[in-house]
């Protein structure tokens, strides 16, 4: 099956006051359809840079990136934006919701770009909010919700367009332990039930442990990758 995301020898250098910072130094990885992977590493290791590239929010300095089998380099900016809109949903540490807008309208918004009518947009948004356990909060604005609820709205918004991949950048970074656990449980369930691949970036090992695959990044390189093989059946786990 075509991987959802495929990176081959990606590099990304930033030019800063005449100096070149090599944030990624040659990263290769494939994220299969339906996977649940965590990218973990210390601050400055290149996680956000990698996430932005995987999400087509940035272009690599060199290397190949394929989104659902389509090579990024060959696409003009507007075609890339359309591919991104159809294929990838984003969740950010700080939610990025419209503050004065109801949960329902926040979630329905991305569907405007799909050319769907208002009735259909709202019906899909309602179903997405139901899926994150917020069917009773449709008319609430973000300011009337807890951080955990706001992140669940953001997850519903990321999934309403039925993407292949959900990219989550430190999704529990602004939440207390209990709300963070709840958000991770929802991501886990959505991954199992809807088959959307989930890739999350974190510096917290406890958060990364929720994923079925851990990709450790350090100094712009992949240091280790537990791979896609299920954890069971590798032996050494005792009877
Ligand atoms: P992480 O997400 O793991 O904290 P980043 O991908 O943000 O790491 O950063 C990797 C390296 O690239 C760091 O040394 C950082 O300072 C540098 N960097 C990131 N973004 C920029 C930028 N826009 N301009 C210059 N340097 C950057």
What does this structure look like?
The protein is built from seven helices and ten strands. It has 239 residues and is α/β, with parallel strands linked by helices. The strands form two sheets. Strands 6-7-8-3-9-10 form a six-stranded mixed sheet, with helices on both faces. Strands 2-1-4-5 form a four-stranded antiparallel sheet, with helices on one face. The structure holds adenosine-5'-diphosphate.
Topology:
Layout: E1 5-16, E2 19-31, E3 36-40, H1 47-54, E4 62-67, E5 70-71, H2 77-87, E6 88-91, H3 103-108, H4 118-131, H5 147-159, E7 165-169, H6 177-194, E8 197-202, H7 205-208, E9 213-218, E10 221-225
Parallel strand pairs: 3-8, 3-9, 6-7, 7-8
Antiparallel strand pairs: 1-2, 1-4, 4-5, 9-10
Adenosine-5'-diphosphate (ADP) is lined by residues 14, 16, 21, 23, 41, 43-49.
What's the short version?
This protein has 239 residues and is α/β, with parallel strands linked by helices.
Structural class: alpha/beta
- In spatial order, strands of the major sheet run 6-7-8-3-9-10
The largest pleated sheet is described as: 6 strands, mixed
Anisotropy-based shape: globular
Radius of gyration: 18 Å
Low-confidence stretches: 230-239
Output the helix-strand order.
EEEHEEHEHHHEHEHEE
Q: What is the assembly state of the chains in this entry?
A: single chain
Distance between the termini: 33 Å
Helix content, binned percent: 25-40%
Give the helix tally.
7
Overall mean pLDDT: 93
Bound molecules: adenosine-5'-diphosphate
Portion of residues in beta strands equals: 25-35%
Number of strands: 10
């Amino acid at each position: 099956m075509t991987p959802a995301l495929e990176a081959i020898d990606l590099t990304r250098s930033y030019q800063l006051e005449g100096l070149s910072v090599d944030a990624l130094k040659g990263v290769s990885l494939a994220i299969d359809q339906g996977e649940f992977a965590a990218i973990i590493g210390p601050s400055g290791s290149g996680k956000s840079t990698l996430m932005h590239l995987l999400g087509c929010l940035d272009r690599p300095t060199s290397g190949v990136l394929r989104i659902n089998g389509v090579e990024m380099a060959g696409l003009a900016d507007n075609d890339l934006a359309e591919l991104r809109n159809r294929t990838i949903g984003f969740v950010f540490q700080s939610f990025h919701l419209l503050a004065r807008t109801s949960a329902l309208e926040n979630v329905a918004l991305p569907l405007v770009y799909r050319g769907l009518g208002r009735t259909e947009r709202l019906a899909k948004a309602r179903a997405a909010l139901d899926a994150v356990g917020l069917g009773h909060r449709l008319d609430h604005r973000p300011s009337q919700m807890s951080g955990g609820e706001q992140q669940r709205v953001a997850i519903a918004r990321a999934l309403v367009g039925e993407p292949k991949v959900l990219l989550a950048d430190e999704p529990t970074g602004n939440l207390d332990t209990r709300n963070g656990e709840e958000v991770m449980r929802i991501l886990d369930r959505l991954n199992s039930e809807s088959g959307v691949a989930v890739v999350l970036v974190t510096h917290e090992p406890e958060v990364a442990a929720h994923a079925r695959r851990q990709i450790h990044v350090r100094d712009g390189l992949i240091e280790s990758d537990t791979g896609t093989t299920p954890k069971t059946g590798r032996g050494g786990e005792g009877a």
